[in-house]
Every structure is written in C-alpha cells, then in structure tokens.
Amino acid sequence: MQKEIIVIIGGPGTGKTTIIDGLLERGHCCYPEISREITLEAKKEGIEQLFLENPLLFSELLLEGRKKQHKQALQEECEVVFIDRGIPDVLAYMHYIGDAYPAFFDEACREHKYTKIFILPPWEAIYESDDARYENYEQATLIYKHLKETYESYGYNLIEVPKDTVDNRILFILGHLSN
C-alpha cells in the first residue's frame, strides 16, 4: 500500500482539532495544527497577533512548518497520516485578507501533494471563539470559501464531511480511505 497523507481542512471552529484528537485516541498517526504554536511563540516575543501584525512573516513561518510536516509524514512508518490543515491553507488565508505572496508559496503547493482532502463546512452551532481564533462566524464562512477555491485550484477533489457527531464524522472519514 502506498503512503496516504490525508488533510482535514475547514474554516475556524468547524471541528478539525476535535476530529484529529479523536483519530489520535483511536491510534491513528496525526499531526496537529501548527499555527497556534507560531502564535504562542510570537506572544512570548511581545507580538500579540502575528498574523494580524505581519501576515506575510506569519504565513512564511506557517508554510515552512507545514512543509516540514509533509516531509515527516512521508517518512512515517504508518501507512496513513492525518494532518490538521495543509500547505494550500496558507494561500487561502492570504487570499482571504487580500495580501500578495511570493511565488515560492505557490511552488510549495505544487511540490507537496496530499492523497485526500476532507473539508468541514461552517457550522454555527459548534463555532466558538478563543484566544487564538479572532474571526467571527461570518469571517469563518468566508475563509471556508477561500479554502475550497484554493484547494480546488490545485486540482484537489474535496470530500465534505457531514455535520454530525464526532464519532460519525470520524467514521465517515475512515470509510473514505483507499477509495
């Protein structure tokens, strides 16, 4: 069997991390979202919201981190690796805020391919704001649209995960592997 690198995407507050945590509890190989790490590091240096203050620097750090995750996933012993957000997410967020980015962002998306992309739709009933999530629900919905457009522009066929219990969402994802 060939290595499968599966990405779970969606706007803020759609349940990505909860699903990744559930997959981890079931013994699957999973990589977490890394943007919170970058945000916390910046806060230690006195920058309250790096994405808002310097979106290009934040995005470059995120891009490098996601490229490292992709490389590590390829080297994993397990056959299936789940990742919370992929490289094209970086471009989708830059599109969302209307900022330009260097050509190497696009090159990274073309050079680092994923096997399948599962997208979680906006879901107001579960949306919650927190210290690292500054977007409101309407903004989260716009980000979802940018994510969808960006991934599709790189030729990905997105599989939308239905709004359901965490267990049923995980079963839906697992049921679509190797199909």
Q: What attributes characterize this protein structure?
A:
179 residues, alpha/beta, 8 helices, NadR/Ttd14_AAA_dom, AAA family ATPase
Question: In terms of topology, how is this protein built?
Answer:
Blueprint lengths: L3 E7 L5 H10 L3 E3 L3 H10 L5 H4 L1 H21 L4 E5 L2 H11 L5 H9 L4 E5 L16 H17 L4 E3 L5 H10 L4
Parallel strand pairs: 1-3, 1-4, 2-3, 4-5
Helix pairs in contact: 1-8, 4-5, 5-6, 5-7
Rg to the nearest angstrom? 16 Å
Number of helices: 8
Q: Could you describe the largest sheet, including whether it forms a barrel?
A: 5 strands, parallel
Structural class: alpha/beta
Helix content: 40-55%
- Any idea what the shape is? globular
Mean pLDDT: 91
Low-confidence stretches: none
Largest beta sheet: strand ordering = 2-3-1-4-5
User: Secondary-structure element order, as H and E?
Assistant: EHEHHHEHHEHEH
Strand content: 5-15%
How many β-strand stretches? 5
The end-to-end distance, rounded to whole angstroms, is: 13 Å
